[in-house]
Amino acid sequence: MICFLEKHRKMCMNLLWAAVVLASIKSLFTDTGFDNAYMVAMSFRHLKGDGMFAQMWEPHQTSAFFTDFFMWIYHFFVPSYTGVMIYLQIVGTAFFALIGIPLYRLLKKIAGSDIAQLATMFFIMFRAKQTPFPDFANLQIAFSTLLFLCLVSFVREQQKKRYLCLAAVCLCLEILSYPSCLLAYFPAALILFTKTRERWKNIGLFTGVCALFGGIYVGYFVCKIGARNFLLNLTNIFYSDSHSGEAFVSLWNYFYGLLVAVAWLALGAALACSWREAWGSCWERPSAFSPYTVSSCSCPNLRSCFYRSGRGWTGPVRSTSYLLS
């Protein structure tokens, strides 16, 4: 069976890409969720004049920047917001497809074209809650992927500091998408410490860019509504009824998803090694099937599966497991 797939590799890839395109089109009209309406309502209120951290009390309001921008464009050309949901579904699909281009190019250099294509298909198709809508969970996945791509690109070409600066910007956008993803800073800094030559200088630049953008963002609201009101409203949002009983206050529950990710990746790597030993003669390139392949292809799927487990707090866990893998 493996030798047959190897012989007809191009045809199989074309069929898989056709399936991805058809499934993506179908997903535009059938795959939706209650968080889609939640995001549209937040952006609608914001565009109508409600102030963040003032009149708005939604815990995910920082993630509305993406839908704010595209809903503003939509309303600029269309007098009403009728049809905006399908429009944002298309925007989300296109966003993931665009990220798939640099993802494919980078993985192609590392693992070859076939593995890069499979990993890109997984990334495009397996999203949080199986909807292409650019809500806070899908934005977190998208920007964590961009952070991963920038970090790997910088590790490979350490003279190009622009990759490091872009990685810091992507982390800031990821934190806006899912504020508890602030934890993703630590594995990112660990990568810079262990995989780069000028480790402290690189960590300092990375941290400085993050602090600059974060300071500008927080400073804007402090100047607009006052430091006291900002801190008071932020505290009230955090301790509101929607979050006061959440399980993320338990450290064990919080890191349970990360432990499952590590166990899954270890199992996949072990299976890959044993499979390669048994079927290695069928592969022309020694690197065609490796532990790296399993980790690369399974990460987007893992993130999607963890979210579907019902634990909305697994955002930073998905980011951390993605970066560590």
The biggest beta sheet, please? none
How many DSSP-defined strands? Answer: 0
Radius of gyration: 21 Å
Series of secondary-structure elements, N-terminal to C-terminal:
HHHHHHHHHHHHHHH
Overall body shape: globular
- Report low-confidence residues grouped into runs of 5 or more: 281-325
How far the N terminus sits from the C terminus, by CA atoms, comes to: 29 Å
Strand content: under 5%
Number of domains: 1
Helix count equals 15
Query: Can you give the mean pLDDT?
Result: 80
Return the structural class: mainly alpha
Helical amount: over 70%
Break the fold down into its secondary structure elements and pairings:
Elements: H1 2-7, H2 9-30, H3 34-47, H4 65-77, H5 84-111, H6 113-125, H7 136-156, H8 161-177, H9 185-195, H10 199-225, H11 227-238, H12 241-244, H13 251-279, H14 291-308, H15 315-324
Helix pairs in contact: 2-5, 2-6, 3-4, 4-5, 5-6, 5-7, 6-14, 7-8, 7-15, 8-10, 9-10, 10-11, 13-14, 13-15, 14-15
How would you briefly describe this protein structure?
The protein is mainly α.
Structure description:
There is one protein chain. This protein has about 325 residues and is an all-alpha fold. The protein has one domain (about 1-240, about 250-325). Helix content is about 75%, strand content about 0%. It is built from 15 helices and no strands. It has helices at about 1-5, 10-30, 35-45, 65-75, 85-110, 115-125, 135-155, 160-175, 185-195, 200-225, 225-240, 240-245, 250-280, 290-310, 315-325. Helix 2 runs antiparallel to helix 5 (about 85-110), helix 9 (about 185-195) runs antiparallel to helix 10 (about 200-225) and helix 13 (about 250-280) runs antiparallel to helix 14. Residues about 280-325 have low confidence and may be disordered.
